[in-house]
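Trying the structure run again after the queue cleared.
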Amino acid sequence: MFVSCSGASNLIFLVFVFVGVLQSKYSVDDVSVDKRRRIGNTKMPPNSGTKVQTRQAFSVVNGGQDPSPTSGPPSNSGSDSGVTEFTRENVEALLIEKLRIKNKFNYKEKSEQMAEYIKRLKQCIKWFQQCEGNYVTEQEKLKNLLELAEKKCNDMGSTGFFSKEKDSRLAAERLNASLSEELKRSQEDNASNVQKIQSLNDMYKRLHEYNTSLQQYNSKLQSEIHAIKETLKHVEQEKSAIVENLSTLRGHSTSLQEQLASSRALQDEAMKQKEALGSEVTCLRGELQQVRDDRDRQLLQIQALSAEVVKYKECTGKSIAELDSLTTKTNELESTCMSQSERIRQLHEQLAFAEKKLKLSDISAMETRSEFEEQKTIISQLQNRLADAESKIVEGEQLRKKLHNTILELKGNIRVFCRVRPLLSDDGVGADTKVVSFPTSMEAQGRGIDLTQNGQKLSFTFDKVFTPDASQEDVFVEISQLVQSALDGYKVCIFAYGQTGSGKTYTMMGKPAPSDQKGLIPRSLEQVFETRQILQAQGWKYGMQVSMLEIYNETIRDLLAPNRSGFDAPRAENAGKQYSIKHDANGNTHVSDLTIVDVHSSKEVSYLLERAAQSRSVGKTQMNEQSSRSHFVFTLRITGFNESTDQQVQGILNLIDLAGSERLSKSGSTGDRLKETQAINKSLSSLSDVIFALAKKEEHVPYRNSKLTYLLQPCLGGDSKTLMFVNVSPDPSSVGESLCSLRFAARVNACEIGIPRRQTNLRSLDSRLSIG
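Done. Tokens:
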């Protein structure tokens, strides 16, 4: 906080007014104390009391004058402590003193005078503190004298001087009373002096801060002065340059004046020549006028002659033109007559030929019309036969699929669909390195696939094979009836298997936009909710629950847990949480503590799918930019009740996206990716062991070898309708992995599981979600 000079002066003035009052009071008290000492005890030692201290002023304050003669010599205590004594005149002079500054902007001089003024104030404060200490010492000495006097009075009470000592005692008592009062006043004055000293210290601090600010401002002004000096130097340089320019301009002006004088002389000569030329022009104008008059007369004569010549030419031209036109007309009439005669002859010939041709055309038209009617009848018959054949083919295909599905359901086989993804730009192969082909025979068309490895062609046959140009809609149409079975009360399981980068996640999930890129899971949910709306008219009411989990490194993770927010969250969130898998007597599988969400529309499920996709474990490998590092299991539990028939159904739709199999030599996985790859390959190897055991119909099937196979136990060996998508990459570098996938799919297709059973008439619905 900065204090202005005027404010500081007013504050100092108020402080020293109080100091003056106190000084005058102390002077009076000193006189009364001396009188009391002389009255009370004439034998008091000369150094026991405080003498009237000499008031010496600063030579600076009193203008270099000697101390007042009435002040007396200086005391020993003052000279020993080094504190200068002050008189009332000195304090008043200090109060009325003003700063003597010639230039009010000279802050350095002002700060120096202010520092000197503060120094004198500090000396004055020290002097007051010394006076206060002397008064306290004198008070203690007086108390000691009073005690000695009382003691002496008691000792002398038995002597003959009792009356004299009694008077002395009374005088001592009065002196004691007066000293007590004086002591009280001194204490009060001491307290007020302490407060004033404190205020003076605060004022000193503020003045010190103000002095600091003045120094800073002074340094700032010095820097500004330095900048102004630099500016002045530049101005002086510019001034010198301007002076030089002026001198050069003056030289130019002198030369210009000389040129001006010469130009004036030339102008005079030009004026003289102009006058001479003017006279010559006047003469020439006269001669020119005469020539013009002669020319006008000659022109008039020429015009008259020209008019006569024009008249003669017009008459001659008219006669020649009339003669030419008559000759031309005669020739034209003769040629026209000859051409018309020839034309008449040709028209007679064409007319005779046309009549003959017309007779022939009528005969051929009749024949063509009869043939056309016959061909039209034949075409109509063929079209009807073709339509019948096509309808029979469609009906036969539908019947074949229905019978095939029925046979598979009766046999309990796992249906297998194969899908080959298109070649990508990253594959970097041409048409000459094609390793995947499709047979065109009627028996294997749409169901067969050929794989070429090292020049050897290997053929496989599945329930359905989709070529690379098959759309998501084409794929879903083939499984739509299977999805419908979930609403009818069946357990349905569809899972995708294949190597990394073969298109499993695209088949199951697809892309949110555009709509034709949606995968099987979004399309299945849309069909389920649309069919639910249709079945409501028949009295059916459905409740649906959704759960989503992943198996990552043989650990189950809940993808719909409330505090999951991303890829890193699941690893910390479920680190200590264990999910257990249990199978009940009805073949249902339950996962403990799994989050189950009631859904009422496909939009709600789409939101949950996006949330689960953000939480799912994915990573980058050399084989795939975004590789799924876990097995994803989507489960939709459907419970239906028909009020009219009191029938209850419970269906389960399991849609599973398995992690891709990969070889460590090709994926280049290290660290966490290496552990993930090992866990994925181990679980898929366990799945292969289960398939082998089922194919051989062994008594013991190793479902418990991994969390994946134990979770899929009802789908692989129970009463579920199960479909496997085997995804194949057409990349020649992946032909080994593709061959392994196709062989595994063939074994899966040969496995027989339990006959699908419809779950109806359930009395209660468990709040936990079954995935079996």
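Residues 162-411 form the longest helix (250 residues). Worth checking whether this holds up in the mutant runs.
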